[in-house]
Amino acid sequence: MNAVETFQKDFEALDRAGGPLQRLRRAGWDRFAAHGIPTTREEAWRFTDLAPLARQPFDLGRPSTNGIGSPPSLAPGLVFVDGHYRKDLSVLPDGVHVSSLAGALREDPRLMEGVGAPGEGEPFVALNTAFLEDGAFLRVAKGSRLPAPLHLLFLGTTKAAHPRNLYLIEEGAEATVVETYASAGDTPHLTNAVSDIRVGPGASLAHYRLQVEGPSFHFGAVRARVGKGARFVSNNVVSGGALTRNDITGSLDGEGAHCTLNGLYVIRGTQHVDNFTRLEHRMPRCESHELYKGVLDGRASGVFTGRIHVFEDAQKTDAYQASANLLLTDTATVDSQPQLEIYADDVKCSHGSTVGQLDKDALFYLRSRGLPEAAARHVLVRAFAGDVADRLEIQAVRERVDRILSERLGG
Q1: Does 348 fall in a domain?
Q2: For residues 155 and 87, what is the distance between their CA atoms, to the nearest angstrom?
């Protein structure tokens, strides 16, 4: 049995259970079944071969109370195993309206209305919708502020997990959310996560996404809609996974909205990371800034596609995008594709992309001052990654990124 056959078997079993989400799940499955697992013949996937996933079946993860011990995390928060909430492993923070999505949907099955159906180019969002059951739910009331960052830990075992997260940041509210994706062991698994985000007028959300899994397949989608005068900041850090694809979309839906996308991936061996970002400027006087950086060692491969779409009514748009990649070996590869699609005539938009190796003169200079080669390389790589790493405002997250860099560089 291959992956699609396994997905179909598990969907049919879930569909037989019925429930208020049945129609939504069926719509998701119909869209995924019509598309299937993407192939390299599709423009958006031409640098990412999913044939290994297509051959490997993963049974659907189910709620359990298996013997996973209390996992390490950045702070108290919610823990999910194979996409399902584990109350026994979680420590709910005080003063926060947060719960599992399954619990929130039992109270209000209409929560998913208006979230938006999977788009034509979102087959894994469609697959996630077909298996929509659980995830994290956060509502920050109008004018209020989370007293501390909300931490969410998603652990994978050997199964397929499809967590769906929903964050509603109401008018004038402020919040910080940290999602960490990790593995409970060394066995391959599938993570297919979607975070739907609504940032109301004048509100602000800082969203962190840390992917530190083992040899997994990881698909992560973030779909943020940003209201008038609101601010959304995405920080996306990847060091784990055998194959990772991230789709990050920021839709600036209100005048004066601001969106920042920061990304850093540090990979080695035969790891593959594909980052696909979209910034949709729909209204006037909106601003977006994007910086993605990659550090690749061994035979690792990376892909960056960054698309800025400026709609006709989005006059006075200010958009900047940059992608930079550092190859530590001659066998590492990167394909970078910055894209601008502009239909307004009074805008300021720019993009840039670079791929290079360590500066030999800088390396020689540091070694001539007494630094061993490994330490000198670490200094240069940390300086390269610093543009993104130093933007991470949570100290514990920043320290974790520094540890990742040290471990990957052997020091």
Answers
A1: no
A2: 14
Under DSSP, the state recorded for 345 is S
Structure-block tokens of residue 123:
């087959």
DSSP-assigned letters across all residues of 66-98: -S------SSSEEEEETTEE-GGG--PPTT--E
pLDDT digits (tens, 9 = 90+) for 270-281: 999 999 999 999
Residue 267, in any domain of the structure: no
pLDDT of residue 75: 62
In this structure, the strands spanning 84-85 and 77-81 are: antiparallel
Q: What is the pTM of this model?
A: 0.96
Residue 385 burial by Cβ neighbours in a 10 Å radius (0-12, 13-18, 19+): buried
With beta carbons less than 8 A apart as the criterion, state whether 169 and 205 touch.
Answer: yes
- Say if 347 falls within a structural domain: no
Residues sharing a CB contact under 8 Å with residue 15, sequence separation 6 or more, in sequence order: 22, 25, 26, 29
Residue finishing a domain among 231, 254, 277 = 254
Query: Residues in the chain, how many?
Result: 411
Are residue 111 and residue 229 in the same domain, yes or no? Answer: yes
Distance CA 17, CA 200 (A): 35
Determine, yes or no, domain membership for 226: yes
As for how many domains the chain has, the answer is 2
**Cα torsion at 154, 158, 159, 162 (round to 10°)?**
20
**DSSP per residue, 96-120:** --EEEHHHHHHH-GGGGTTS-PPPT
Examine the domain organization and report whether 233 and 373 are in the same domain.
no
* Domain final position from 186, 219, 254: 254
pLDDT tens digits for 182-218? Answer: 999 899 999 999 999 999 999 999 999 999 999 999 9
Q: Is the dihedral of CA 52, 55, 61, 67 positive or negative?
A: negative
Residue 138: give the domain boundaries.
Answer: 3-254
The string of DSSP codes covering 194-237 is EEEEEE-TT-EEEEEEEE--SS-EEEEEEEEEE-TT-EEEEEEE
